[in-house]
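pls design
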């Protein structure tokens, strides 16, 4: 998944936050997703159009003890998973 490609949340995804934990439901599949802290941070960023590089840079600032290379790798994987599970879509130009 290219870091420069911009994505945004797919319309219709149900989000619930309980005690700082985010759960997502895709109504098309009824699948339930529980996001870890990095996944939750990425999901919050995807409220607006963002790309992998922007997301990785911001999340590195939010988690300063994390290795930047690991964060970038994790963001690419998470965005691919979000896309594969139809939680996000390619943002229009």
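designed seq:
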């Amino acid at each position: 998944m290219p870091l420069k490609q911009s994505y945004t949340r797919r319309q219709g995804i149900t989000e619930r936050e309980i005690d700082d934990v985010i759960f997502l439901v895709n109504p098309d599949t009824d699948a339930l997703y529980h996001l870890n802290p990095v996944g939750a941070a990425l999901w919050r960023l995807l409220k607006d159009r963002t790309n992998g590089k922007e997301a990785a840079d911001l999340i590195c600032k939010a988690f300063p003890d994390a290795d930047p290379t690991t964060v970038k790798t994790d963001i690419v994987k998470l965005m691919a998973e979000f896309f594969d599970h139809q939680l996000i879509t390619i943002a229009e130009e």
